[in-house]
Design brief:
homodimer, alpha+beta, five-stranded mixed sheet
């Protein structure tokens, strides 16, 4: 069975994964706050991404560039002129919509028909003023993508590191898009996290590296447990591609609300570096070490929506079965991503000898386990299992009277609900 | 000897720690981009902070809340009314300054005297509009502190986790302050990263926990290698404290430009929760599990400027000495924080048997070492040592002809420049 979006939203709020942003004030549309378990899950996904695409490689340079950039960046990148959505307004009630949301020319708010005129272009960048003078020279925008941070630092990377071509510049960070209609939980939001890299190549190599990264992206989805049959490649046709791209593949995931983009792979050509060279007057060419003629590199860009990954991982993990005649909800998260790796239970909370022994095991695991270890002594063991199942904890360890006799504990596995008896001294061996 | 700020800025740019933001367009004042080594150093500092204050503890809840929040948050917090700096304008040339920058009533820009009138209050929050309608209802601000994310999620944490008091909510993230005059490199900037937590307590316990965190903050500085004699506690007097605080200690560090704040410890009382209760109408009281009367908790807040930590760590590490009659610059970084943990050199790059063996050692270390391993085969060994010294790499490993005979390598230590011969098989044992 597949989870509904409502199931996931409700679990996220109840158990502390994700809350509505500014909730006590009725929210702020398109913003979400990650609670402790969501923060941990997101941290684990980002750490896995960095490990997979960045940290292990000699040709990858990770940067962390500012969200606020000089407005000229967004002029050169084309975002000031073209990062638009078509906006229509109802002449009766003045509600505003993105044009493609109006299906039958009837206003979704007031219900009147034929109230929408020609759309106007609405720029999706958030505007602000920098410094104590409010004029056009001081306008800038919250970055709508992290990519421009890589392009504007390309020369710095050349100067500091003299990399051989091809090489990549990577970044994980916040971006902002003033969506007309944010929706679908953390899928279409106004504040989002992106993990992406720009891979600089010779023009003649573009098909080769496009193909390389296409394959590696599938490897990544597999690595985080998203099944092949839920990932779909969509070749984006000419008229739908972003202004900078010569070829784009959207990677779509089977979300509860349909197939939607989770990641993308774009051949950005030399569009960005060329425009920055023109606008800034700075030389953007790469000088090959063999003395051959300098040229402006072309770029392949694999890009990943971090929040969309969190949602895909949660939707994919959400499971139900029956245990002893009762419905059970559990998150089948890969152990590497699970926010809590193991929970420790004393069988009874009012037996000091059990509690003391459990505390000992708990402390030992805290040292041994890379990740969170949780303590729970509240309610019967069955209830505690259910609580851990719901947040995707792969293992529960119970300390009982037998433990006091022979230093063994019960390890219970989340997916199979199977239990095994293990010696404390090699409790963690073979797990995770 | 102490490093000058210029020494540090120059090293940061040259070696890829930190670059001016939007540099190819002449910058955007008060913004900086972290290059690969700076990103790694910052990641290591944040990881150490989370390990020290958050991950190991059962009573700490880490969240990641949105930068964009409902404007009512900033009304309740007092920031709309009071997060001001006094701004003065020259009546001759219209330059604007923070009042305390004008020392002798002469304009620093045009040189005219007595051109400044009464200051006006300049709000330091960046303003923007959310959604497709530009009116006062849609105004919001880039958060000037992360703390309000913790206060607005306090109820969510109670609901999802039922924590015992005291407990803490922690966060690491970007904040934005529209400083009139950003300065001193990454010290006073418009976009900054903060690591902080709100620790919720009974009012009667405030002095006890203030004292506890004061001590732990010193423990933290020691942990990251900042010497006791460079850290100074400043008791902030009544009239200088933020509007929400009843007691504040600033922790100052001996930066190259003087003693300046690196962290702070504030007793925020129940100011924030009370105001949010009033403004939102939501009950902010904590219900003790023993059934005693509910109350609004008070708050102790330890707060840490992440960029200021990066700068302090760099300034403290910057060292010079003489080696063989030549000046040497090296960063005496704690191994835990060093962006590169170990570098691997084949003695000669044109001897395939040395290069192959070195590649083998390099691959082995990449698996074993938590952190970055760098390869360098460029220039003589002395030059390679200098390059690694300058970025603070604790160990350099050279593969030479003796290696081919007996599987040993030379390990060279950064600070002492001492070399030792070690067997490859236990190369990493005892290091870091």
């Amino acid at each position: 069975m597949s989870a509904s979006l409502e199931d996931i939203v409700s679990l996220c709020k109840r158990r502390g994964f994700i809350y509505q942003g500014s909730e006590i004030y009725g929210g702020l549309a398109g913003t979400y706050d990650y609670g402790p378990l969501g923060t941990q899950l997101k941290r684990n996904i980002v750490a896995a991404w960095l490990k997979f695409f960045v940290d292990g490689w000699d040709d990858m340079y990770q940067i962390d560039s500012a969200i606020l950039m000089n407005q000229k960046v967004w002029q050169a990148s084309g975002h000031v002129d073209t990062f638009h959505d078509p906006l229509v307004e109802c002449s009766n009630c003045h509600s505003r919509y993105r044009q493609d949301e109006i299906k039958d020319d009837k206003c979704p708010n007031c219900g009147k028909e034929h109230t929408f005129g020609e759309p106007r272009q609405f720029n999706m960048m958030f505007k602000t003023n920098v410094g104590p003078v409010d004029d056009e020279n001081n306008v800038t925008y919250l970055r709508p993508e992290t990519a421009q941070g890589m392009f504007t630092n390309y020369r710095n990377i050349l100067d500091s590191f003299s990399p051989d071509l091809p090489f990549g510049i990577a970044q994980v960070g916040k971006s902002f898009r003033n969506e007309i209609s944010p929706r679908d939980f953390i899928f279409r939001v106004r504040e989002l996290e992106i993990a992406e890299f720009e891979y600089f190549i010779k023009e003649s190599d573009w098909e080769k590296y496009f193909e390389k990264w296409r394959k590696d992206m599938h490897g990544w989805f597999e690595k985080i447990g998203l099944p092949k049959d839920k990932i779909h490649e969509i070749e984006v046709p000419d008229n739908d591609r972003a202004h900078y791209s010569k070829r784009t593949i959207d990677f779509e995931f089977d979300y509860p609300f349909g197939k939607k983009e989770i990641a993308g792979l774009a051949y950005r050509t030399d569009f960005d570096l060329k425009n920055h060279q023109e606008k800034s007057g700075k030389d953007m060419s790469y000088r090959p070490k063999d003395g051959s003629a300098p040229f402006i590199p072309h770029v392949i860009e694999p890009t990943f929506g971090v929040d969309r990954h969190v949602l895909a991982v949660l939707a994919n993990a959400y499971s139900e079965d029956e245990q002893g005649g009762e419905k059970r909800v559990f998150l089948k998260l890969p152990a590497e991503l699970a926010p809590v790796k193991v929970a420790v239970f004393p069988l009874l909370k009012n037996k000091p000898e059990l509690v003391d022994k459990a505390k000992e095991v708990y402390k030992m695991l805290k040292k041994e386990v890379q990740g969170t270890v949780m303590w729970d002594d509240n309610g019967n063991i069955g209830k505690r299992y259910r609580r851990q199942d719901e947040i995707g904890t792969p293992y529960c360890v119970t300390i009982d009277f037998q433990t006091l006799e022979n230093d063994t504990v019960t390890v219970r596995h989340r997916d199979s609900t199977q239990q095994e008896r293990k010696a404390i001294r090699d409790l963690w061996t073979g797990l995770v």
